[in-house]
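Cross-posting from the modeling subforum.

Setting up a comparison between two proteins and wanted a second pair of eyes on the formatting. Protein 1 (sequence, then structure tokens):
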Amino acid sequence: MRVIESLNLEEAKKIIAAAEKKAIEIGQPMNIAVVDAGGNLIAHERMDGAWIGSIDISIKKAFTSRAFDISTKELGENSQPGKQFYGIHLSNQEKIMIFAGGLPIKKNGQVVGAIGVSGGSGDQDQEVAEYGARSL
């Protein structure tokens, strides 16, 4: 029987704290979500001044990254017209986000959850997500 590791609340809080630190450093309020190995939300933070419309986006970016074990940036690049994943954003009750800011999180080579960040430009969201993911 294979044991599937998963992020826990303590780890999610650590990831969010690191991502928040980077968001403050770049001066962009963000919504930061972390999901477990099953794609279920563990924790979410909306920084003061972050767009309320980005709450849903950050959660869906985290879900997408875990559902497909791929960054949302990479998925977005491969879901343009003529590419292999064109139309994927319509799957999973349209919960799939195809722009930067979502990353799977690995521990010992195994995906254990994901982070989703929204509130800035795609580059800013990606930078903050990468910083948070590296904190584990």
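Protein 2 (same layout):
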Amino acid sequence: MKKSDIIVKNGKLISDVLIGLDKEIQVAGDELGEFRHQAENFLWSLANEIKSITEEVEKVKQSEENWVNKFIGSNSQSTSNILASFIRERLKAIEKQIPGLQEQLKQVINSISKVQHGASNAHAYLIDGEREAEQALKNHWSGEVIDYYLRKRAESELKQVQYIIKLLREIAPSLMNFEEFLKEYRRKIQDVDKEVRYVRSFTKIATAEDIKYLKKTIDDLEKQHEKFSSAEKQLGYKPIDSYYFDDIINSRNRDCTEFRAMIEKPNKAYLKKIRIWSSDIVNALAFFYSDDTSAIYGTPGDGDSYDFDWHKGEKIKHIFKRVGSVLYAIQFHTDQGRISDWRGGEKGDSYRVLNEYASAIGIHGSFSRQICSIGIITR
């Protein structure tokens, strides 16, 4: 879209703002992962410290009941002082972890806010881009511009823009809801912090009534954390580029058609050149023969072209490819040691289609608006 000849005024702005939004989403994901890790460690530590306090209180209680039967005086007081000191130290260990957790949560909330802001900016630019694409189509249908290629480009870019607008509108409520969830999480942490400080301030042993509120705030925090995974799923995080390339293209691939391109034709005409059109995917392939015939599969207008000359009698050694819902990238290796450029994008899983034990006589695959799949035909 950055080089669009349809959305001229806003194409670059839309491209830049979507790239920026993608980065903000990645940062938010990283910050969120770090917070979850810290929160789980904190809750584990919190449970252990409270367990230690509870066990120590029980031990002292049993001990004091025995001492009362034998002694009256300082021993009981000394034991109480030791217990009070023990409780304060354990609570101090909890208290020291809270600022770091709060700071990480603050970073998560800030990053989510940046994603919301970026999505809002992207939406505004996309609305302007949508108007440009719609105007280009109006000009075509009114007869002011008669260009089939431009019309198809305008239809394609309008569809892309409208789809991304729909996505941004759908994720906006999820982002707001998740931000509210995180803010509630922050309030639960603040409640625990407040109660820990309160109990630590005692010069005497905290009673069951005193600790009751501390235990309640801890229980509330644990319940909030239990909702974390479901809240994250509701957020429905999926990168913008993944929506665009996987979801849109999957729908286009329902009509993929098989093709076969031979290295040598029955009339002895041989392959002279392979032309690859690519963008973030492999958009089209063309095979040119010595008899001046050619075969094209896919939509050439959707990508930049690259030519790889083919020598008479040359065979395919193997093909490297990156695939997912479509063919994202491709590279040819021949038995003469020649290698084509990598053409396409960075997405997909990498594979090597190997021709090791048989003679390669051609290429087979499938195509729709773009190349869906590719392989080697062997004798």
